[in-house]
Specification:
By secondary structure, this protein is α/β, with parallel strands linked by helices. The chain is built from 17 helices and 20 strands. It has four domains: about 120 residues, Tumour Suppressor Smad4, CATH 2.60.200; about 120 residues, 3-Layer(aba) Sandwich (Rossmann fold); about 160 residues, Nibrin, BRCT2 domain (Rossmann fold), CATH 3.40.50; about 70 residues, no CATH class. The strands form five sheets. The protein has a six-stranded antiparallel sheet with strand order 2-1-13-12-9-10. The N and C termini lie far apart (about 140 Å).
Length: about 550
């Protein structure tokens, strides 16, 4: 886009945009002069600017030049036989025209202050989805809106050319590059804002100016107002945090990031390189590659020799977590965890790069493992101290972009432990007391049993004997009580009892119908008096004992 500005009071101290396909007349203001730009007519005591001094014409954009970042529209300056002439880059062109070939040109009208015509490219790099990229021309729609305005639209991110990245999400590979290089990221609505700023205020008037042609800086859309919507980001940041910052260009200086996933490597390699870092790809063979091999590669990348692969030997080398597909997914997670344990260094997620870039600090990506409270068994049984946080190998907390580790990643074998704490065992049986008193149990006495037996009626039988917890309850009531207990324990007991009663009643009714005249009562079984038999047995034993005492008297 061609921008015209003045070093003095010309143009009211504003910068203006020159639209492609339009010719602008500059000169001393007067009625019906057709001068589009008013320039002060006097400098000192003399008149130096003619009423129609010169014209600046910008050619139309050549089709498809909207995708060529180095293509520029042609600009022609023509002096209209002005009284004092026009100087272009120090050369007098009175009554002549000059086609500009440079990106920046100084123009002086007479002896007044000079103007500066400058080419300021606007290149939008678009981050399309895989579905959009499969179309024949993904840029066709946006090019139809922006190409005639001298605004470039491309797909790749070019460090020295891209001015804005258009995307639907904040955290993309191209977006990270833009943030590192101090370029804004915007949503698709930014395109509509640009079109609005370049639309003339009066459609019916061919000479009407658009907002950008009147005041470029004031009418240019503010990129911070068109920031893409936040996605699944663990940290909610204001729009101002995504503004351009030149300090980010050295964010990865001295750091090396090792990738096991080729897709991750391709996406983030450019961003890491832009931040003065280094990205390396290790060819992982699913189910075959070992943690020792990855650690050895990391150690070599750090320029250190040795076999342990401890943190002090690795320098600023960091492994980015990779995930294999299908049956090897769990295997890849375990390999990364083993590398973390062997190196005493966190394995980071690719989403953490955004936080490091926005904070202009990559040190959170290269941290040692947090100390654990103990082994996995101890962690499951013990409670950590209030001042300590129990974390695992995949802890991503900190100022960087963190995400909770999946459940399968948290179940990590902790064969190497920083510290082991064993809680002192305190038995609660020392103070156990349920109020039970052993002395409250009465002492068994044979005489008491005998006295209780003598109190029972002599004619009591087995069927009439009382139970220990039921003194003289009838047998029928005892059977009913037993049935109630059974019914409460067995869901179908009540139904079975009812069915049995119905069957018994049916049998009784049948016998009554057929043998009603010859019903003979069933003989009862003779009852045995247990208590009486026991008393007789004790009397016999007592008599036998007395006879033995008389036969063998005790000698004193």
């Amino acid at each position: 886009m061609w921008i015209l500005e003045s070093t003095g009071d010309f143009l009211g101290g504003k910068r203006v945009w020159l639209r492609p396909g339009r010719k602008y007349l500059l000169g001393r203001p007067a009625e019906n002069s057709g001068v589009h730009r008013a320039i002060p007519s006097k400098v000192g005591n003399g008149t130096t600017v003619s009423r129609k001094h010169l014209t600046i014409e910008v050619s139309s954009v050549t089709p498809r030049d909207g995708t060529h970042v180095r293509a520029r529209t042609k600009v022609t300056i023509t002096d209209l036989n002005s009284k004092k002439g026009t100087t272009v880059d120090g050369e007098q062109i009175r009554g002549q025209e000059r086609v500009l070939s440079e990106d920046e040109t100084k123009i002086q009208l007479g002896r007044s202050a000079s103007l500066l015509l400058k080419w300021e490219p606007v290149v939008l790099s678009f981050s399309f989805s895989s579905k959009e990229l499969r179309s024949d021309d993904p840029l066709a729609k946006v090019r139809s809106k922006l190409e005639d305005l001298d605004i470039k639209t491309i797909i790749p991110y070019l460090v020295d050319q891209t001015t804005h990245v258009v995307q639907n999400k904040r955290n993309t590979a191209k977006g990270l590059q833009a943030l590192i290089n101090g370029k804004p990221i915007v949503s698709n609505s930014y395109i509509d804002a640009l079109v609005y700023a370049t639309t003339p205020t009066e459609f019916e008037n061919d000479e009407a100016m658009s907002p950008l042609e009147t005041d470029f800086d004031d009418a240019w859309p503010n990129p911070s107002e068109y920031l893409p919507q936040a996605g699944k980001e663990p940290v909610d940041r204001p729009a101002a945090a995504f503004g351009p910052d030149t300090a980010r260009v050295h964010v990865f200086d001295g750091y090396t990031f090792v990738f096991g996933d080729p897709a991750q490597f391709e996406n983030l390699q450019a961003a890491i390189n832009n931040g003065q870092g280094k990205a390396l790809l290790y060819q992982v063979e699913d189910g075959v590659t070992t943690a020792d091999e990855i650690v050895r590669f990391m150690r070599d990348a750090g320029g250190q020799k040795g076999t342990r692969g401890r943190q002090e030997e690795l320098g600023k080398v960091v492994l980015v977590r990779f995930r294999s597909k299908g049956e090897h997914e769990q295997w890849s997670i375990e390999i990364s965890n083993q590398v973390a344990l062997m190196t005493d260094r966190r394995v980071i997620e690719q989403s953490e790069f955004l936080g490091a870039i926005l904070g202009s600090d990559a040190s959170p990506l290269c941290r040692s493992l947090p100390s654990e409270e103990g082994s996995s068994q101890t962690l499951a049984a013990a409670t950590p101290e209030p001042s300590q946080e129990r974390v695992n190998v995949e802890d991503n907390s900190g100022p960087s972009e963190s995400q909770p580790a999946p459940i399968q990643e948290q179940q990590v074998s902790t064969s190497k432990t920083k510290t082991t704490r064993v809680r002192k065992f305190v038995s609660k049986m020392k103070t156990f007391d349920d109020g039970f008193d052993m002395d409250s149990i009465p002492i068994y006495s044979a005489e008491e049993e005998a006295s209780n037996d003598t109190q029972q009626p002599a004619t009591q039988s087995v069927d009439d004997a009382p139970l220990p917890s039921q003194n003289t309850q009838p047998l029928d009531e005892l059977e009913d009580a037993d049935d109630d207990i059974v019914q409460s324990l067995l869901p179908g007991a009540k139904a079975m009892k009812r069915r049995r009663e119905e069957i018994d009643q049916g049998r009784k009714g049948s016998r009554t119908t057929h043998t009603e005249a010859t019903v003979v009562p069933k003989a009862k079984r003779a009852k045995l008096n247990i208590m009486e038999a026991a008393r007789k047995h004790r009397e016999e034993e007592e008599q036998q004992r007395k006879a033995e005492d008389e036969a063998f008297p005790l000698r004193m």
